[in-house]
Prior knowledge:
By secondary structure, this protein is of the alpha+beta class. It has helices at residues 5-18, 55-64, 90-96, 121-124, and strands at residues 24-31, 36-39, 68-76, 84-86, 104-109, 112-120. Strands 1, 2, 3, 4, 5 and 6 form a six-stranded mixed beta sheet that branches.
Amino acid sequence: MKLDQALVDAAVRLMKSRFPAGPGGAAAMYLEDGTIVTSVSPDVLNESVSVCHETGAWCEASKLGRRITATVCVSRESERHPHLILPPCGVCQERLLAHGPDVEAAVPDPADTSKWVARTLRDLQPYYWRNALP
Ligand SMILES: [Zn+2]
């Protein structure tokens, strides 16, 4: 399943329900059969143990034994900006690459960071470290 507005909407919907006001975020991923899995970063008392919004959805895909095909993470830093599109961090990219370099990730449209464009992990990591291995 390719990245589309329905996946972005799922992430925004979860963010709004879990964090109705103030800062917040959420992630949504398509699995190969079209299932959408979503997650948020759990509350922690010590930021050093926090995990990304994507982590729960990534674990859910593993639990279900299905390949991830697309991912989106949204964040709201203030009420002035309804949501931003956040590309996956380096750790999340590394985790997602277990599902192949063709996984699509939403990245912010340079003209409007509340809008998205799709890029593959191959696009995000042209010099991925494993590519150097025989
Ligand atoms: Zn991350």
